[in-house]
């Protein structure tokens, strides 16, 4: 019988961290060997024999946590934000001194969202028109969502690569804002509606046909399959990987 | 056996008119007794024994056509635009002198669209949030569509009536246009996509639930069931009716 | 200033009941005067001065609870199942002896769901084709859902009333089950998908157009606006009302 | 300036063929050098200097047409059905004798449909649940559609490959047909609705999230961008390619 992967969760009392604790405990091929909160000493993960850490802490703590893991030969799966280009460079240098150790840093662990973005970007190379509609709860303060902006940028880059420009649009007369925001030439519309969580639709159109790729995120639980997939794959991806799509067999 | 309704179509060579000719010919309870083009004399409809006219001509001709029909005791179903408030008043006066004659003037004969608007307006009285997304082919010159603007106005009026204001929205930071156009406090988003025809979605949200009412118009043929329904019902509605919803048993 | 409505919740420790307790407490025009669990004596609601009870208990208890309320002149809003035709008849007789007392018994308090069903039934009178797709989490044991069956029956009754039969269907060769279940001549398809809660789509089609009415229930919270609406309106509806649509200004 | 590709269309008077004639004529990088009907002699395409043929004929004629093209060093893009495994083997042998000649045989030239199927198959490796809903006009005689069956089979093969079985389903009590048809363990539901053309939705669900990939085919015109893409790429793909996805840069 295969041995179970020894996993430690950092930030175990946070909203995401506590979900991760439950997810690791429920995974038949993993063993939760440590669950650390804000004030616990990192040494505990070594003492517990962890070979993997899941870091779901805060921007101020994550860099120190990951450095500690790498220096102790422990693979890291990181969902915390705050990783600037500079921080990533420092980490790459450190990983070069620790070959064999893998680190995955991902802004989004929802498999469906990662796949939806990858598919939309690829498909946008083949369609005359593309627009994005994102829909969220009305307490969100920014519009459009970060995910929608990144999706639009990726789509724009793909279209430029194949020589496609913006989508056709004969609008001459519009009420201000009707045609949405312009992100690198891609129109993005943001709906805010009580009852919703986080949803995104990429609409692609050509003569006589439409392709729609929609992702609905109903619950924080949606991140956990991606976190577990990260833990299972991180040892086979030494060095730094940014974005869960790097682990998916997308070939995109 | 019931006699078939004798119907004349005006504007029979236009895009809508030629569809109407086909629709009337296919209707088992109707008989097409005349089909007039731009230069044909109106007297032909009297000679042909028409009891109903379907007017699908142009703004310049429609008023004269309808006046002629009413003066000859012929019921009229009118899809032509250009009926200002003043013109409608003149027509009402004329109809008062011809009791028993019915005229239906409708900007939209697609049953689904008429129902969708009526349902959305009614439902908006019961939901915290409501927004509209309309989607059309990219050759359309105005945004949002006239139907979307009318729907938003009707929704706003319904919400005011029950003391509901705008939908909640915590947006503090937005890319210009992301949150759509503001029509009487209702957000309206206009998507333009190759391959589409004319589509509209009204999204209503409350705690833990969403109601979506969507209409898709794929083809001009969608107007014909409404035109036929108009012909069948116009004699039972003497005087002027504006809007097909006046003939639908909506009770709304 | 208007006095707040004194409300008691029965079944206050259950899943629905505890949501109701929170909802009543949050409503600015209501006061929670009692919250009773399984073993609490009903007399407490009289002592507390309740003028309204919300019953979210179990089939075995609800009849006794409602009888007690009516006999003490207290209006009742009931979400508990188990009300057979016989039980309803007994209740009607009791209410006849207590004019002025109102009771609302509703199988479904989600406003969106009630509206969606009413709209779909009405719209089905005007379309050639109609089918239902319901989508739920994969732990549900029955297919299709009770709501989908009731919607299909209501649609079938409406179509019969206007002389419309089943929807057109040229299928000659099918894999068993592909065309869904047949409920009074209406096709119903049941999707089961991890991540979903409770969703239903009624699709209506005519020449060149489609009307779609969709309801998404994400959370038990979706029932509470309907419960509060029931409390606010029950006193104005003496006698027995079955179904929340009886309180909605639908005119359908 | 680049020379235009000399293209011949076979089956030019058929429904698909006449669309192809228009599409080739409109393509700025192509020249229509011949358009043959049922009784025209194939030699005309050689005389006209065609380097590419588009075959949109009938199962009885297509094999002879393609053989003729290959033997004359002309690349072929084929949308005609009827290519059995045996016929394909014969063609492969012929192509081995004519290195440098390319043939593309595709059952479906709608880019959106090809992409949707590829994406759905790939995504199904990462989700607990997957089901298919296909929707067509009510004059269709088979249910589910061939595309839906192929999509389900491809999904099943992908899931088997990664050790995923069927989707979870606790259904104990069902009305016959409610849960759809079973195609290799994937549930497929077929909706038939007046007004529709050809539509397909693949629904994928995991804890707290849903991914939906939908394709709408409104018009035969949707096949033409794929046909043109085939013509442009066939010379770079010597030998036989089955399925347009072989030409798309999907890396899937």
Q: Tell me about the biggest sheet of chain A?
A: 6 strands, parallel
Fraction of residues of chain A in helices? 25-40%
Apparent shape of chain A: elongated
Oligomer: homotetramer
Find the CATH topology of the largest domain in chain A: Rossmann fold
CATH class designation of the largest domain in chain A: Alpha Beta
Quick one: how many beta strands of chain A?
13
The CATH homologous superfamily of the largest domain in chain A corresponds to NAD(P)-binding Rossmann-like Domain
From the N-terminal CA to the C-terminal CA of chain A, the straight-line distance is 35 Å
Spatial extent as radius of gyration of chain A? 20 Å
Q: What is the CATH architecture annotation of the largest domain in chain A?
A: 3-Layer(aba) Sandwich
How much of the sequence of chain A is in beta strands? 25-35%
Structural classification of chain A: alpha/beta
Series of H and E elements of chain A: EHEHEHEHEHEEHEEEEEHE
Largest interface: A-B, 50 and 50 residues
Number of structural domains of chain A: 2
Low-confidence stretches of chain A: none
Explain the overall architecture.
The first copy, chain A, has 7 helices and 13 strands. The first copy, chain A, starts with a strand and ends in a 10-residue tail after the last strand. The mean pLDDT of chain A is 95. Chain A is of the alpha/beta class. In chain A, a hairpin with a 2-residue loop joins strand 11 and strand 12 (209-217). In chain A, strands 2-1-3-4-5-13 form a 6-stranded parallel sheet, sandwiched between helices. A 5-stranded mixed sheet of chain A has the order 9-10-6-11-12. The longest helix of chain A is centred in the middle third of the chain and has 16 residues, at 146-161. The radius of gyration of chain A is 20 Å and the shape is elongated. Chain A has 2 domains: 5-109 and 221-247, Rossmann fold (3-Layer(aba) Sandwich), CATH 3.40.50; 111-218, Dihydrodipicolinate Reductase, domain 2. Chains A and B meet through strand 6, strand 7, strand 8, strand 9 and strand 10 of A and strand 6, strand 7, strand 8, strand 9 and strand 10 of B. Chains A, B, C, D: Pathway: Amino-acid biosynthesis; L-lysine biosynthesis via DAP pathway; (S)-tetrahydrodipicolinate from L-aspartate: step 4/4. Chains A, B, C, D: GO terms for molecular function: 4-hydroxy-tetrahydrodipicolinate reductase. Chains A, B, C, D: (S)-2,3,4,5-tetrahydrodipicolinate binds at residues 137, 146-147. Chains A, B, C, D: This is 4-hydroxy-tetrahydrodipicolinate reductase.
């Amino acid at each position: 019988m295969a041995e179970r992967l020894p996993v430690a969760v950092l930030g175990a009392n946070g909203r995401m961290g506590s979900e991760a604790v439950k997810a690791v405990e429920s995974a038949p091929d993993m063993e939760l060997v440590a669950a650390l909160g804000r004030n616990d000493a990192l040494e505990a993960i070594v003492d517990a024999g962890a070979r993997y850490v899941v870091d779901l802490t805060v921007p101020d703590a994550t860099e120190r946590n990951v450095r500690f893991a790498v220096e102790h030969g422990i693979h890291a799966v990181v969902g915390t934000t705050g990783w600037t280009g500079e921080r990533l460079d420092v980490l790459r240098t450190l990983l070069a001194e620790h070959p064999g150790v893998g680190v995955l840093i991902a802004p989004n662990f929802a498999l469906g969202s990662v796949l939806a973005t990858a598919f939309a970007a690829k498909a946008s190379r083949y369609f005359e028109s593309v627009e994005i509609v994102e829909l969220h709860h009305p307490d969100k303060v920014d519009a459009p969502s970060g995910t929608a902006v990144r999706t639009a940028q990726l789509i724009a880059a793909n279209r430029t690569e194949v020589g496609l420009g913006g989508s056709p649009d004969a609008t001459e007369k519009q009420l201000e804002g009707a045609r949405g925001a312009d992100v690198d030439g891609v129109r993005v519309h943001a709906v805010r509606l009580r009852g919703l969580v986080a949803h995104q639709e990429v609409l692609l159109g050509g003569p006589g046909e439409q392709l729609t790729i929609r992702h609905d995120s109903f619950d924080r639980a949606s991140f956990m399959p991606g976190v577990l997939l990260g833990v299972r794959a991180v040892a086979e991806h030494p060095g730094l990987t940014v974005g869960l799509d790097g682990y998916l067999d997308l070939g995109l």
